[in-house]
UniProtKB/TrEMBL annotation:
Pfam families: Meckelin (PF09773)
Identification of the protein by name: MKS3 protein
Keywords: Membrane, Transmembrane, Transmembrane helix
UniProt keyword Cell division, yes or no: no
Domain of life (superkingdom): Eukaryota
InterPro entries in the cross-refs: Meckelin
Transmembrane segments: 326-351, 451-472, 492-516, 706-728
Keyword Transmembrane helix recorded: yes
GO biological process terms, semicolon-separated: cilium assembly
Coiled-coil residue windows: none
GO annotation, cellular component aspect: MKS complex
Length: 757
């Protein structure tokens, strides 16, 4: 009434120190302020702001339900922001009017001087808090004695955001404050804490060392109140293409500290600037993609299960069928999660870092939980598929068919009879041992170099600086100064950057090895097929009970167990086309086949194989270890003779035909014809037998490595640790695959494991 503006400011400051209490008590500073506010309506308002009375400070926005959402969302901030351009477009120009406790106006202060950051730091890092798009976090412990010294007199702030109008005139936009310590009236407590029921205020302070003092103002206060957590929230308007934001919100939480020993006492304080946008539309799109791709994965898994049933000659849907379907679905669903997470990570990486006028903002850490869950699901399901792949490769049936025939006869003494008889010259086993060793070597050959892959990814992330793209700031620079502020990591961007590098380097490796290295240096898979032909040995593989692969290694020269001179002559004749072609069929070069064998053929194979693996009857029925070896050798010769005669069409009741696969059969990875009476050999233009090796499953191995690397990185926030552990797991699983694969090879082919090196 007396227009004493300083006294009214002092009353407002007392109310702010009392946490803007809505108490109706007339002795309370806020109650008195409300009484004055209500009874001075005739004085008018300031700057057309309904809540700002003449001669009074602006403390409240009003207590009407829904007012907070109207203040924060009804109007857009009248300027645009970008990641590139002049200061007025890339920086938040916060400015504060400061008052002392007595109500005297002190000055206007720009927040870039670190006014609100209680933690000491360099000027560059303090100013980085207001670079648009940079998520800022600062926290530290402060000594109570230092706070008492630096804030002997509390200072009160009214915060504004400065902008230029259409006529380039400067304007101020009042920034609302959400005080988490606000003493709600019973009405607000009952209504809950949603945005509609927030009670927004204006004025705030950082440290109050005044109201905690008792009678003697010269003594230390019993209690000090500190702004222990300050957050400035920036929300982007949905569907904007020009960097339009809603009015900022300052959220503040105070902590009361009982002063006992200021020299030893400390308090944790933090200051942050967060950026957010409505992510509901992105979540809906992700859910739709999951639903559609997940449904397609079910259909694809059903097709795989149908193909598996056909290859195992099983017509009954039993528990094994259900489990096999679940295993197929686990692998396909892992691929769905992987595609969605990689796509999401690269999307945010490209569209957030490359934008000039801001249209998207990164999800908050709390909004990344679903993304991390998707990665965890992808890794778990892919690990299940990988283990199932290992088990299937370690249990395949394999046999080396030796086509070599004896050259002439030799004299041989018959034990126990004392006579000498002529017998066929023995065929050397060394060629079989040689092929077995070569097969053993290529079991874990991959299409990429694993060590180079890990080192290259780590080099680009840590040395070149691609890891800096995962920081939650607007900069797309790979090099950061040690003096510049380092924003917190975004888990989505970390995954996007690392997965993109893994895929890019792996793709380049595959191109290099397939186009250059395997063509001009060495192709171990093709060389193995050539070695089989030169060694006069074929490979018969069964990955399923009635499906497998055949490598035709029968020498076109009749013999392979020969001297160097004859071997060179054979190679020369073949180079000059003076002999027949290597293919299974006359005048063809086809040496590799996918085979679908009849049930009768499989039963005959199993009968011989039982003796080969020495599983017929308990050990007590066998005469001795020598007889056991003789029986195994006899079984080996029987199997060799049976398979070679099968390839030569000797068994008319177990014959086979050779045909090409239909295009749809190749796409679906299944066979439409059932081998009821005759087995079927499908021409293989590539080397599909590598499906039982690491080489043919590079996609599964690569995705598993990427997910393993990402899981370790998300847990440890360390690319170096993730790279080390990824390489270790690669070597561990390679050792397991080699060791157990070697044992399976020895047991299925009768090649003594001592000769496998």
């Amino acid at each position: 009434l007396y227009s004493n503006l300083t006294a009214c400011q002092a009353l407002g400051n007392m109310c702010v120190m009392n946490m803007n209490s809505l108490s109706s008590s007339s002795t309370d500073a806020c109650g008195l302020f409300q009484y004055v506010y209500v009874n001075t309506a005739r004085l008018g308002i300031v700057h057309s702001v309904t809540f700002w009375r003449h001669n009074l400070p602006w403390l409240y926005y009003g207590d009407q339900p829904g007012l907070a959402s109207q203040v924060l969302e009804a109007n857009h901030f009248p300027t645009v922001f970008s990641f590139k351009g002049t200061d007025k477009h890339v920086k938040l120009q916060f400015i504060a009017a400061s008052f002392d406790a007595a109500g005297n106006f002190l000055k206007w202060q720009n927040l870039e001087g670190g006014i609100l950051q209680l933690c000491p730091d360099t000027q560059t890092k303090l100013d980085a808090a207001y670079a648009f798009g940079t998520t800022y976090q600062q926290s530290c412990k402060l000594s109570v004695s230092k706070l008492l010294l630096d804030f002997a007199d509390p200072i009160f702030y009214d915060l504004f955001l400065e902008y230029n109008g259409d006529n380039e005139q400067q304007y101020l936009w009042a920034v609302p404050v959400l005080n988490l310590n606000l003493q709600y009236s019973e009405m607000f407590v009952n209504q809950g804490s949603s945005m509609n029921n927030w009670l927004l205020t204006r004025r705030f302070f950082l440290v109050d060392t005044l109201s905690g003092k008792e009678n003697d103002l010269g003594k230390l206060p019993r209690v000090i109140r500190i702004a222990s957590k300050i957050t400035i929230s920036i929300r982007l308007v949905s569907h904007t293409q020009r960097g339009i934001i809603y009015p900022p919100l300052l959220t503040i939480a105070y902590t009361d500290v009982l002063v006992q020993n200021p020299e030893t006492q400390s308090v944790m304080v933090s200051f942050s600037v967060s950026y957010e946008m409505n992510q509901s539309e992105a979540q809906i799109q992700t859910d739709i993609a999951l639903g559609v791709l997940g449904g397609l994965a079910v259909l694809w898994s059903l097709l795989k299960t149908a193909g598996w049933k056909r290859r195992t000659e099983s017509s009954v849907i039993d528990l094994q069928t259900v489990l096999k379907f679940l295993m197929f679905y686990a692998g396909d669903l892992a691929n769905v999660f992987f595609v969605i997470t990689v796509g999401t990570g690269i999307y945010w990486l490209v569209f957030f870092k490359a934008q000039q006028f801001v249209s998207v903002l990164l999800p908050l850490p709390s909004q990344e939980e679903d993304f991390v869950t998707y990665i965890a699901c992808a890794f778990s399901l892919k690990a299940l598929q990988f283990l199932q792949l290992l088990v299937s490769q370690l249990t395949i049936d394999i046999f080396f068919i030796d086509w070599e025939r004896p050259k002439g006869k030799v004299l041989k003494a018959v034990e126990g009879e004392g006579v000498i008889k002529s017998a066929a010259a023995p065929v050397s086993i060394w060629r079989t041992y040689f092929i077995a060793n070569e097969w053993n070597k290529i079991q874990t050959v991959r299409k990429i170099n694993s060590l180079f892959q890990v080192l290259a990814v780590l080099f680009f992330l840590e040395v070149v600086g691609f890891s800096n793209l995962a920081l939650m700031d607007s900069s797309s620079s790979l090099i950061r100064s040690s003096e510049s502020y380092i924003a917190p990591w975004s888990r989505i961007l970390r995954f996007g950057v690392s997965a993109a590098l893994w895929l890019a380097i792996a793709f380049l490796q595959i191109i290099f090895f397939s186009v250059f290295y395997e063509r001009f240096v060495e192709d171990k898979i093709s060389q193995f097929v050539d070695l089989c032909c030169m060694s006069n040995i074929s490979v018969f593989l069964l990955s399923h009970s009635c499906f497998g692969y055949y490598i035709h290694g029968r020498s076109v020269h009749g013999h392979a167990d020969t001297n160097m001179e004859e071997m060179n002559m054979n190679l020369k004749r073949e180079a000059e086309n003076l002999c027949s072609q290597r293919g299974l069929l006359p005048n063809t070069d086809g040496q590799t086949f996918q085979i679908s064998i009849s049930r009768k053929m499989r039963l005959h194979y199993d009968r011989i194989h039982e003796t080969l693996t020495r599983k017929r009857g308990p050990a007590r029925l066998l005469d001795s270890s020598a007889n056991t070896f003789e029986q195994s050798t006899r079984a080996y010769n029987t199997m060799n003779k049976f398979l070679s005669s099968f390839i030569d069409h000797v068994h008319k009741e177990m014959d086979y035909i050779v045909k090409d696969k239909l295009l749809l059969e190749r796409i679906l990875g299944m066979e439409f014809m059932e081998p009821i009476e005759k087995s079927i050999f499908y021409n293989d233009e590539g080397h599909s037998f590598s499906d039982v090796l690491y080489y043919g499953n590079e996609t599964t191995l690569l995705v598993f490595d990427i997910l393993f690397f990402s899981i370790v990185d998300l847990a440890s926030q360390s690319f170096v640790l993730a790279a080390i552990l990824t390489y270790l797991q690669q070597e561990i699983f390679r050792f397991i695959r080699n060791t157990l694969g070697q044992k399976n090879l020895a047991s299925k082919t009768l090649v003594d494991e001592r000769f496998l090196i």
